[in-house]
Amino acid sequence: MQAFAYARPESEAEVLELLAAHGGEARILAGGTDLMVGLRNGKFRPRVVIDIKHAGELRPRIEDEAGKVTISATTVLADVIEDATVRHSFPALVEAARTVGSVQIRNRATLAGNICNASPAADTAPALLVYQAEVVLARAGGVRRVLLDDFFLGPGQTVLQPGELVRAIELPKPGPPFGAAFGRFTRRRGVDLAGVSVCCGVDSRGTSRFGFGAVGPRPLLVADRTGVLADPAAENKVRERALEQLVGQASPISDVRASREYRQAMLPVLSRRVLAAAIDRRSWR
Question: Looking at 172, 187, 211, which one is the last position of a domain?
Answer without folding.
Answer: 172
